[in-house]
Design brief:
about 150 residues; mainly alpha; 4 helices; about 0% strand
């Protein structure tokens, strides 16, 4: 084997090793970025889910109050606090939710306010009135969370 070739073989091995290392790092970096993106998307989805569940929880409490009012029962002392909490939860959806979900939760909150503080349309029960607003919220939430 010529002396020049013997001198170039180790250099070729170093170059091949460096190329393999760089390729390995590139693949690892891409995988890390993909994992980080997936983790961020999962965290955001979890935040949206939490916001939706919080809104549904307080809206159910306000719906119960509205039903009690229309049945002539005594209302709890914290009616205004529940309404304020409902609007706060709706604003969180305004930040984290899709346009469809934002519109649905706002419209439902308006219905809840009407049923709690005013009257529902004549000939319609409170349950029917609220259900008309609740259905779009549930459909939008299912879409938002990927269950549709």
């Amino acid at each position: 084997m010529p002396a020049d070739l013997q001198a170039l073989l180790p250099l070729g091995g170093v170059l091949l090793g460096t190329a393999a290392t760089l390729l390995g790092q590139l693949v690892a970096t891409r995988e890390t970025k993909r994992e980080a993106k997936a983790a961020a998307e999962a965290a955001f989805r979890e935040e949206r889910k939490h916001a939706i569940l919080e809104f549904l929880d307080v809206s159910q409490q306000v719906a119960t109050i509205a039903t009690q009012r229309h049945l002539g029962r005594e209302l709890p002392d914290d009616v205004q606090a529940k309404i304020d909490q409902m609007w706060l939860r709706q604003r969180v959806i305004e930040i984290a939710g899709s346009l469809t979900l934002r519109r649905a939760t706002y419209a439902f909150s308006e219905r809840l306010m009407a049923a709690t503080c005013r009257d529902v349309p004549e000939g319609v029960s409170v349950r029917e009135f609220l259900e008309e607003g609740r259905i779009p919220v549930i459909e939008a939430a299912r879409e938002e969370l990927g269950f549709a």
